[in-house]
Amino acid sequence: MTKTPILKEGNNCWQKTHADQVALLIDGENYFGALHAAIQRAKHSVYILSWDIDSRMQLVRNSDQVEDLPIELGAFISEVLNRNPDLHVYILNWDWAMVYTMEREWLPMYKPAWKSQNRLHFKLDGECPMGASQHQKVVVIDDEIAFSGGFDIGKSRWDSSEHKAKESRRIDPDGHHYPPFHDVQMMVQGEAAAALGDLARERWLKATGEKLNKPSQKSGSAWPEYIEPWFKDIEIGISRTMPQYRDQKEIREVEQLYIDSLKAAENLIYMENQYFTSWKVADLLAERLQERDGPDVVLVLPLMTGGWLEQATMDVLRYRVACKLKEADKHNRLRLCYPHRDELGDSYISVHAKITVIDDCLMRVGSANLSNRSMGFDSECDLVIEAETDEHKATVSRFRERLLTEHFGMTADELRQNLSQEGSLIRLIDARQENSHTLRELDCSVSDYANQMLPDSAIVDPERPIETEKLTKMFIPVDEPKSAQKQWWKIVAVLVVVLALTAIWRWTPLSEWLNPETLQHAAEGIKSHPLTPLIVIGIFAIAGLIAFPVTLLIITTALTFGPLWGTVYSIIGSLVSGLMGYAVGHYMGRNTIQKLAGSSINKLSRRLAKHGVLAIITVRIIPVAPFTVINLVAGGSHINTRDFTIGTLIGMLPGILGITVFADSLMRTVQNPDPEQIAIFVGVVIVIVGIMVGLKRLINRKEDE
After folding, report:
1. What is the rounded CA–CA span in Å between residue 194 and residue 204?
2. Pair 94, 124: CB distance under 8 Å
3. Where are the alpha helices (DSSP H) in 42-92?
4. Rounded to 5, what percent of the chain is helix, strand, coil?
5. 20 to 30 Å CA-CA from 534: which of 266, 544, 588, 694?
6. Predicted confidence (pLDDT) per residue in 232-243, tens digit
7. What was the pLDDT predicted at 74?
């Protein structure tokens, strides 16, 4: 590796600052135990910056590690505050996107754990562009020690380094077991911790308008005694990503450090990451792979990313960049791997770490993924060590070895012996492909259908904020009426679905349970209840507030209660849900709605206020935005409750009638797919589409006038 320093202040790092001690905490058992030990020693302040946090999360899972303090995060912090009247705790959690609602603690701001102390300050931070996230994971204690890396203090993050298939302690607050989880956090002491304290206070100021003071003095006792430091008296680089937002200028230190460090590599680039979708990183790695004497490249990734949404998006983008790298790998120096263990069966280790080790000379641990959005769209924070002495280089190498021993199921001595025999990490990976505990090559393949359906990465994984106008045109073409040809394609699609359902009905076991008796039995618990109307309406009301698809609710109601009562319940439920969303929007206020929604939705707000009932009818028949969004925006606009109610009732009625009649006819067709019933169903579809197209044209003419 070149002797020219890689870290450059103001370019690829915010600052280089001194650390008295540094420890590397690999996997949740080590990190959360250290966090529990450190926070109880806090004297003045604790700052927590998080993407996700759960007050019920158990920090410690071994009884011998706990004295007389609670192990659940919320109760633990409350007790620490009770014991120290001088302590303040500041928690800044990302004000997350609706898509993550079901994965997170519900209404965290109102949990007793966060409200029981007036010195516990919990805030949600939405000071980022639309679609971006606050992804920094930082904890600072008294400006003396700090943690930063990939770990959230979330409900499914704890695991031991053994990553056992059957681990009774790996259970979330809801009592559910979850798959093995691998991540890394760095702990620093000294000036580096104070710098991260400055970062936390700056974030707090932007999110709340409140300026926090630095701790008046440092106690020098927050470092847990049982943790042995990996480094002493060393410089730490802090690299950030911050998107351009209001008066915040764009910061792309994370990206620049990837560029500079990958270019400087001579022998081995070793990376562990949750995602791999960055086209810039892929291009740079492809260039290095094409060099005759370039470095080996080993990437450790999860077999699959999180839930179905990530698998249908980020895994597809990963496949595209993987194809690019494999094509460039002319000299067989690339290995894309995942940690494999036979004992896990169909499960797999969730690799959540964000680690880079360049030769024996540079290591970084942080929050930044190898994704486009981590380069310029989400906020990120990585800590970097550039080795300057032989001792530092040996420790960087030891860090990589520690990770590999975990992945290969070896001791450190066994790993060194095997590496010496094989000659390189690449050859060791190849030699152990059939082992039961190893790094196995990752195929990355996805279905052709998924690859064709997913749009360009600029939409799914943007590297910069997308203008709201552009984003809206991509998904909500308000001013572009759909052509008749597209409408007929919808009809054809519906008919194809019906034919598919008919085939499934005739040639699969579906007919054994999809019948009126079974459905009636399934709905009996609700239908026979004396408070059935209130239950159904309550479900509509709650679902509307959490952005559950109202169309799906209407279809379910129609299938359960039939076209008559299905229509009645759906109309009343949608109206109540709409009014509740309207009330929330009114309570939040116009300025808040504008801040959250952006310019395109603000245009919708002005449109609603200007045209009253007609505008509400229009946006209900022509859904330019989701049901929940329309309710909130209407409440935050100048439209009155009477116009909103009448417009919602008139605008929703044709659609609900169409959906309930359609659902009833569809069920009859699936259950009795004879030519007569199919003809009736086709007629129903044509009539419904004709009515909706006619209403849209009528409304467009009215608005033009």
Report:
1. 15
2. yes
3. 73-83
4. 50, 15, 30
5. 588
6. 999 999 999 999
7. 93
Confidence of residue 303 (pLDDT cuts 50, 70, 90): very high
Decide the pairing of beta strands 15-26 and 184-189.
antiparallel
In single-letter form, the type of residue at position 13 comes to C
Gap between the terminal Cα atoms of the chain:
71
pLDDT: which is higher, 584 or 1: 584
Q: Is the pLDDT of residue 520 over 80?
A: no
**pLDDT single digits (tens) 320-352:** 999 999 999 999 999 999 999 999 998 999 999
Q: Which two tokens stand for residue 107?
A: 């209404």
Which of 149, 142, 136, 148 lies closest to 212 in space, CA to CA?
Answer: 142
CA R_g for the chain: 28
* Higher-pLDDT residue of 572, 137: 137
Please give the structure tokens belonging to residue 235.
């410089």
Q: How crowded is residue 668: how many other Cβ atoms within 10 Å of its Cβ?
A: 16
> Could you tell me which residues are beta bridge partners of residue 92?
49, 123
**What is the pLDDT, as a whole number, of residue 627?**
58
Q: How many CA atoms lie within 13 A of 144 on its CB side?
A: 20
Query: Tell me: the pLDDT tens digits for 65-96?
Result: 566 899 999 999 999 999 999 999 999 999 86
Report d(CA 613, CA 585) in Å as an integer. Answer: 18
Q: Which residues fall within 8 angstroms of residue 208, CB to CB, at 6 or more apart?
A: 123
Average pLDDT score over residue span 431-435: 97
Q: What SS3 state is found at 603?
A: helix
User: pTM for this structure?
Assistant: 0.71
Asked if the model's pLDDT at residue 473 lies above 50, the reply is no
491-513 burial: b if 16+ Cβ within 10 Å, else e? eeebeeebeebeeebeeeeeeee
**C-beta separation of 573 from 552 below 8 A:** no
Cα 346 to Cα 96, 159, 180, 303, 307: the distances in Å are 30, 18, 12, 11, 15
Which residues are registered as beta bridge partners of 336?
A: 299
- How far apart (Å, rounded) are the C-alpha atoms in residues 519 and 559? 8
Using an 8 Å Cβ cutoff, are 631 and 585 in contact? yes
- CA separation for the pair 359, 369 (Å, rounded): 20
Between CA 400 and CA 33 the distance in angstroms is 22
CB 544 within 8 A of CB 585: no
Angle between helices 627-636 and 550-588 (to 10 degrees): 20
- Report pLDDT for 482: 46
Encoded tokens for 551 = 């169309």
Please, are residues 46 and 87 in contact by the beta-carbon 8 Å criterion?
A: yes
The C-alpha angle 187, 192, 198, rounded to 5 degrees, equals 110
Q: What average pLDDT does range 470-492 have in this prediction?
A: 45
